[in-house]
Each structure stands twice: as C-alpha cells, then as structure tokens.
Amino acid sequence: MSFELRDRDLLGRIGRLRTKGGEVETPAFMPVVNPLLQTLPPRRMRKEFGCDIVITNSYILRRQFGDVPGLEIHGLLDYDGVIMTDSGAYQILVYGSVEVTQPEIIDFQKAIGSDIAVILDIPTGWDVPRSDVEYTVEETLRRAEAAIPLIEGSEALWVGPVQGGRHLDLVARSARLVGELPYDVHALGSPTEVMERYMYPVLVDMAMTAKLNLPTERPLHLFGAGHPMVFAMSVAMGYDLFDSAAYALYAKDDRYMTSRGTTQLQDLQYLPCSCPVCRSHTVEDLKAMPRGERQRSLAEHNLYATVTEMDVVKQAIAEGRLWDLVEARAKGHPQMTSALKRLSAYKEHLERGSHGFKGRGVFYHDYHSLAKPEVTRHARRLIENYGRPEGKTTLLLVPAPPEKPFNTYPGYLRLREGLQPKLCEVHVCFVAAPYGVVPESLAETYPLSQYEVAEPLDHETQMFTVENAVEYVEASGHEKVVLVRGGDPFFDMLEEALRKSMPSLPVLRPENLWERETGEQALRLL
Amino acid sequence: MSFELRDRDLLGRIGRLRTKGGEVETPAFMPVVNPLLQTLPPRRMRKEFGCDIVITNSYILRRQFGDVPGLEIHGLLDYDGVIMTDSGAYQILVYGSVEVTQPEIIDFQKAIGSDIAVILDIPTGWDVPRSDVEYTVEETLRRAEAAIPLIEGSEALWVGPVQGGRHLDLVARSARLVGELPYDVHALGSPTEVMERYMYPVLVDMAMTAKLNLPTERPLHLFGAGHPMVFAMSVAMGYDLFDSAAYALYAKDDRYMTSRGTTQLQDLQYLPCSCPVCRSHTVEDLKAMPRGERQRSLAEHNLYATVTEMDVVKQAIAEGRLWDLVEARAKGHPQMTSALKRLSAYKEHLERGSHGFKGRGVFYHDYHSLAKPEVTRHARRLIENYGRPEGKTTLLLVPAPPEKPFNTYPGYLRLREGLQPKLCEVHVCFVAAPYGVVPESLAETYPLSQYEVAEPLDHETQMFTVENAVEYVEASGHEKVVLVRGGDPFFDMLEEALRKSMPSLPVLRPENLWERETGEQALRLL
Description:
By secondary structure, chain A is α/β, with parallel strands linked by helices. Chain A is 43% helix and 17% strand.
C-alpha cells in the first residue's frame, strides 16, 4: 500500500503517502512550480517552508524541452522532494486543446521521473451545457481506461481524475467508474472557477459527491485549491492533496492571504501574521519595496500562511477538533458559512468517517456544532443499541442537571432515592441539549460526561434536541412517559412534540413548575 | 491630550498614548516583566516582539531595593520603551495586605520614573460577600480621591482603577465616581479569576458596565488579560491596554497559546504557527529540550502569539471587520460563544461606538452577526429619519431581489413600471434580511448596496428581520400595507406578525404565490 492512514477526524485524515521519490505526510499542500519562471526556488520551499512535495506542469516542460533523452524532473527543478506533474488538462481548460496526445504525455511523465503523474483528462469547466459536461466525463473515463496499459509497471503513482462540474449525478458516475480502475490517487477536476466565484456551497456538493463515490482508502486531490481559508473544510471532506499557484498569483496582484481571507496590500495597515516576512518588515517596508521584491516577499508570506494553515488543520485532526476549526474558518466569508450549512447536511457521512473520538471535551458553540459526529453517533447508537431496557415500561425524562456526570449530581441523587422502589419498571433518561436523551446508564461515558454547550441555546439547537428526544421515544416502545418538569426551556416544546408525534402515548407531567431536585410529584405519576 | 484616537470599530479603537517615556500605539499588550527574574529581557521584547510598553511591579521593586536614591526603572530593566508599574494591589489580592502605604508607593513610583503608575487600590477578588465588595469599592474610591493631591504635578500618567467584581451596580458606581476624578487612564480590576474560570459572559458584563460608566475618551486597561483568544472581544468592548504574565506562566506549565485556545505541549503533534520559534523547531525538538530552554522557547512562542493577535485585531479595526473577528474567536470555547451572545445584547452601545463605516461589504454569517453596528444603525435611523414620506399612505413591501442594488434589478424595474401611476401615494420598501425594511430610495446607499448574507437564513435571523420590519411599519404610520408575495421564506411570518401587532391595519396580499417580477396582482390591491 502506498497510502497509510495514521489519524482521522470527520472524513479528514493524516496519512503517509509513499512515492518513488520519497514519503509525504498528508494533508499536504503542493505549491505550483513554474519550471520556466521560479518565484521561489523549490529547494528553498522545502528547506524553509517545509514543502516536501511540489507540482509542476509536464505539458509546459515538454513544449519547452521536447523529448530530450535524460531529462529528469528532480534535477531540472533542483528539488529532492516528491514531484507531482500535471498533464496539460489545465491548458485544455484554458485554451480548448493541447498539442500532445495522451500516450505522449504519459510517456513523457514516465521518462522525466515524475513521482505522481496524471493522465490527460478533459476538464469540465464552468457554465457549459450538460451535453458538453457529459462529453468531458465520458471522454475522461475513456482515457482513464485507455491509460491503464500505458501506465502498467510505471513506478510513479497515477492519478485518475473525476469530472462533472456541478452536475452531481455526472460527478457521481465519474467517481464511481474511475474508482473501479487501478489508480493510486484520485482528483476532483477544475473546481477553481467555483472557488474564484466564492461558490463554496457548490464546491461542498461537488467535493462530497466525488468523495462518497470513490474508494475511500485512496488519497484524494483537490485540483487548484490553494487558499488557506478553504483547507479545514476541504480536509474535513476527505481531501488529502492540494495544489495551487495562488500564493504567487495573489502576490502579483498585491494580495495578502490569511486563513480568514484575502486583503489588498494597500488596505493593510498592520501585518497580522508572525511569519518571517511579516516579523522582519513593517507594512510600510512592504508597500515601499520595488515591485519584484514586493512580489517575492508577498509570495513568501502567502506560502507561509498556506503551509502554516495546513499545520493548524493537522493539529486540529490530532486533537479531534477539526469541526471547531471548520466553524471558525467559516467566519471568513458568508459563502463559507453557507458552505458549512451545506456540509452539515452530510453529517451522517462525517460521523461514519470519524473512527473513534479523542476523549476531549466536546464543544457545542451554536447550531453549526449540531453536525459534530459525537452527537450524530449518540443519536444513532441510542436507537440502534439502547432501546427500552427489559421490563422497563415507563420512561422518566429528567432535566439535565447543571453538572456532569448527570447521574452523580446531588439533586438528582435525591430524586433517585424516591425512585428506588419503582426502578425495575422505570427507565431514567436525562434530557440534555444537544443530544436529546441521555440514559442514566450512559451518563458517565464519553462524550456525555464531558461536553460544553454555549448558553442560551439557540432555536435550532432547542428544536434539534427535542427532535432527537422524540425520535428516541418513538423507537423505544415505552408504554408511558413521565416528564420531571424543570426549568429547561425546551420542556414545553418537548411535551408538545411528544403529544403531536404519538397522540396515543400517555405523557404525564406534574403541575408543579419547578421541582427538579426531588421530583416528588413526578414520582406520584409513575 | 495624552490620548488621541485614530480609528474606531465597535467600541474598539486605535489610539496613540503619549507618556513621558514615549508614545505607544493602542490597543497594546504589556508583558509583565518580573524585575528579579526575566524570562525574556525587556530589550529583546521591544526589538524582536515589538513590545513598546511593558509593565512591572513597583511593590516588589521597593521591597527588593528599598528607597534607594537614584533608582530608575528604565535603567534597571534596561528598557527604553514605556514602562507601567503596578502598585501592589495584586499582592493585596493574593496575600490580603501589603507592607506599604499608598503615599509611600505613589512616591516610589514617582521616584523611579514610571511612565504610567497606579494608586494602591483594593482589588475586589472573587467569591467574596457583598459587604466586602462594597468595602473594596468604597476604599478604592477613597484612595483614588486621596491620591489626587499626591500625584498632582507628576509627569507620569496615573491610573484610577474600577472595582466591584461581578456586582454590576457597584462596578457602575465605582466607574462613575472614579471617572469624575482627573485620572489619565482607567482600569478594570481583577477579572483574572473570572478569565481563569472561563466565565467570559461575566467578564462581558463587568467590562461593559465599567466601560459605559467611564469617560470614553480616556484609555482603559483590563488588568491581567493576556490570552490572545480574548483580545478581539476585549478591544471591541473599548479596552486599550492589556497586561499579563500568562505568556511566561503558561510556558512554565508547558502550555502553548494560540488565538483559538491553549494546548498542552504533550498534546501537540504539529506546531500550528509561523512564528520564529515554530518555524525553526519541530514539535519533537521542543518536547526534547531541557526544561529551562523549553520554557524560554514556549514563552517566546506565547509572546509571539499574543502580540501577533494584537496586530490581527488592529488590522480588523482598520478594515471595519472587528465583529467578524470576534465571531471567529468565539469558536475557541463555548463560554466565548456565550460571551458573544452576552455582548450582542449591548449592540446599541456597540453601534454608538462605531463612528462611520469603512465602506466594505458587510458580512452576515448567522444570527451572531445581527449585533453588527450596520444593522443596528439602519434600524434606528429608519425609524428616526425615514418614517413615511409626505403623502405616501400605502406601504408596498417587495421581496429583496437577488442582486444589489435592489432598485436597479430588472425584475424590480418591471414591477416599478406598473407602479408608475400610483407612485405619489405608494411608498416602496424592500424586505431584506437582516435589515428588515430597505426603502427604495436607500437601496443604493452603503451598506444596503453592499452586503452578503449566508443562506439559508437561520430562525433567529428570520425573526429579527420580521421584527425590524414590523417595528418600522408600527412607527411609520402608513394607512395600508400591501405585500408583494414572493418566495422569501419570511413573508408568511411577516404577514402574521403585522396582523398580530397592528390588528386594525389593512394588510393586503395577492393570492398568486409567486409573482415577484411583475407584481400585477399586488398592483391591483393598491
């Protein structure tokens, strides 16, 4: 296996990708290196920026140098890390066609010693009629199949791209079929325009559709993604490799990148960064530099911002806090928040990707946090595994005490004493946002013993909690529900929702407005 | 004037504080320098970290050196920036009393040449009975008055502290009365424990109460605030100076600070930072260092993270995006999000602090963005200045077109054509989240022409929009309201809310579910 997973969070993962040119840790950002015009020498990128992998364009190289025998990419770039080469597909997107055949560019990439190489796929592009999209998908698939005999025996890792643009059914087909072929790496083609137009919700649907239809164990590349603002979300969707020339292109336009967005140099009054460029210059220094030097300095800053964000993302995976980071980065632009909402709809998939949790306290900031895998998993397992315990016909719903674990809180212990004689027939659950229902027997397990919710709860979180509770009651088959009425704001909502969803189920509730601690009246209703 | 404001956003500001030891730009973080034990030499702090101001403890100095004639603080610390000295109040908090009188420590601070000096106030502390809190407030006020003749003619700037802890009425009294005395700087005393316990919502109430009761033009210091996570919010509340030893104390406990929170070194697998320490070491390097070296390196990283965040905050002020930053930082901990909600309740005060906007597109991410001054100001001005134009008896509410400015959208222009004959009596407003109502005549003005809202809208934003619209209709005195029914999700809510709030107002709405573009039916209802 060339790809080994070491850690996971959501669909994101930390992995080791072995290539003939060396190992790379993923998620990894590959700066685009223009072989003919180097803003920063690749050797420096590795030494100073920690870039163990770069990408360059084999089509441009071949046009420049032709099929020179002995041409070797690592020597040419003076770079001893891993080199991926693109095939000219981007040039097809921009110019409509290229002066090379797929067998020629595959042979060329083999000859120059690319470590990761790409077939000559046909990018879908943007704003094209569906029939054209269908052509790019089918032709890319045809080429992916045709390439198999050509790449057999090659030492490089080969990339099978996915096309389809915003036509999700075609993305799904493209991913499913190319995933059946023996490629080492997959890639989602040409979302660049989607990103340039800030259409992040569209990107989420494209990226998730590709991801969910590809073999999950293969590394996945997002072509052209290079803004640090989108890394956390893209990694959370299961993408491992990213490439872009944005760090240099933005610098050319005097644009300064941060994980929160982009600022024009002229709008900067401070350098909000601690990278070597920003610590050794004032903003006035930068503005006063001659154009060439300024572009180089901005490119360096942009690359620092880019590679540092990847470390932020990896550390978030290590801590099991990737979703918190995605939430924070979504504040960079309203379209990022829209994308967060879109991604939240895939929460069941995000949960399935999260293999085991890190044992840290889980944070629920607001309704965006409801997509966290911990809460999705709890709701699912509750219904699958913890229905109604044998013999317990009555469900007693107790407001969550103010301290965790709930079952050892003194006020609750007093209620439990009075409950003692009935315990064989009464199933005690706490009603706790955002989980819904927490059975007493699980109150000391992770994450139910260790989480924090921002208060006051927003409407969405209240509704979510009530819905989760109702779903559990629907599935559990209790004969009677008794609510220990408390100050929790959603107890009225809960009662109403239970009566509405199960009109024939007896739902009893004491008159006394607040008797959380002893629950005497509730006990009389049992 | 020793304090000059250069820029503002919310209650936050960028200012220039002139002292006898030099000028300092605010907001500024002052690292606490222990005169007897320097983790980092103050000279290096200035040169490498850009700290133009530090704080040290005059009480400790006096105990160590006594009243040595000629003792001068800048020479002693080998530091040529601005030096603030604390008075021993912190030691009163920790040890209950100090072996110095107020006149003695005031004289000492004058003698050693402090640039900013503090009277000997009595910190309130935490979890103390109200009678004790009252004592600390009254005694601090008494001392503040008694100090006036002692500090008269002093070249230093003098700080008049505010006490009261979480007793907001006492904080208000303390602030109001000390604000009447001729101090140069004010400070909110001892919120340290509140911050250590993550009680950020309490901090917001304390900090806002002090701020709103003090002369706004004087610089304001938040004692003991040194975690980068709280800077954006604290600056947004109008605080200008911050001091803390946290950068060094956290390092002692192997804690690594970022603007998103704190991580134990042992839990770091990556260094999510681009500061000189983190770029020149791997996390394994740091973990393997001898204790002393490790502490020094961590203290350096922590100080870089701290001062860099202050630049992030200042740049956010320059861009008019401080609230976006506050929202992003609130994702660091649920208690920070709770604090954000608490702060949102002060939105009228935040709006009054924001003098003019920066002309950038305004971002509305979710309901947290509803506290932005742009939307508060629009709602207020709409009612104050743009009631019902002369002669226009009918209000026509049109769904906001999908593009801005609303009044030049082709679909709307078609509707307007049909409207032409009635324009003398019809007042046209767009219904647009989150503003509520946008009169046609304002559609091309900032920020109504230039904002973005994340979609789909959350429940809170829908409700807020409807409430703003209803408030306007209540205040405007139209005789009739006609709704041009559209696909906007809140048009049903709006109709219901209008009927509920003004049962006798005719609210007309066409039958046709979707006729946004021509609005023919609506026109017939006019």
